[in-house]
Amino acid sequence: xxxxxxxxxxxxxxxxxxxxxxxxxxxxxxxxxxxxxxxxxxxxxxxxxxxxxxxxxxxxxxxxxxxxxxxxxxxxxxxxxxxxxxxxxxxxxxxxxxxxxxxxxxxxxxxxxxxxxxxxxxxxxxxxxxxxxxxxxxxxxxxxxxxxxxxxxxxxxxxxxxxxxxxxxxxxxxxxxxxxxxxxxxxxxxxxxxxxxxxxxxxxxxxxxxxxxxxxxxxxxxxxxxxxxxxxxxxxxxxxxxxxxxxxxxxxxxxxxxx
Length: 259
Prior knowledge:
Layout: H1 15-23, H2 27-42, H3 47-74, H4 92-101, H5 105-108, E1 112-116, H6 123-138, E2 142-146, H7 147-159, H8 163-170, E3 175-179, H9 188-201, E4 206-211, H10 219-222, H11 225-236, E5 239-243, H12 249-258
Parallel strand pairs: 1-4, 1-5, 2-3, 3-4
Helix pairs in contact: 2-3, 7-8, 7-9
């Protein structure tokens, strides 16, 4: 439609219009209608241009609300941001890998990110910062949790015969971040629900995890050798593996302050 008529100079908002906009869930239309109307009259806009401007404002507002909602539900610790990530302390290989992962393409294929290294290397910060950028730049839904907490919740769900329901709830997240997988208490029941979680998301939804245990020591988590091999196989099939070497980032930062 290419209507070139300009807007009439008459009252722009009334109770009926406000109610109609609320029913259509056009909250930004309602908020900005009167101001945009005045601009439109002043600049002799056509009806089409006036409507287009309101639509753009509504879309921007919805995008902002969605991003805010995704950030809130992600539960990423506030300090884990790309700005706070001291990339000078990262190896050239990790920096290069991070730049690729920030594009978010791995999520569409259900790819996994596995980060290994001793405590204090910055594994959790890297995953949290990456996840936050995936939300801000790509609208990807994320959930960040210490591994032991999600295992506890799945154990409770299993006990209540609601494990499938719990897994379906996690399924709404494109990326599930399991922080510090090496600290799971390693009972048989915990092993089983963790393996079930890996299997449920396999080739469908992404897992990002950090671990201070290399794969050769994962029998400490899963106990059974065959289960350990099966869990690792599912994780690495479509995975990017990041390994931290060298000294602790916290130790490096402390040394830098002293120098």
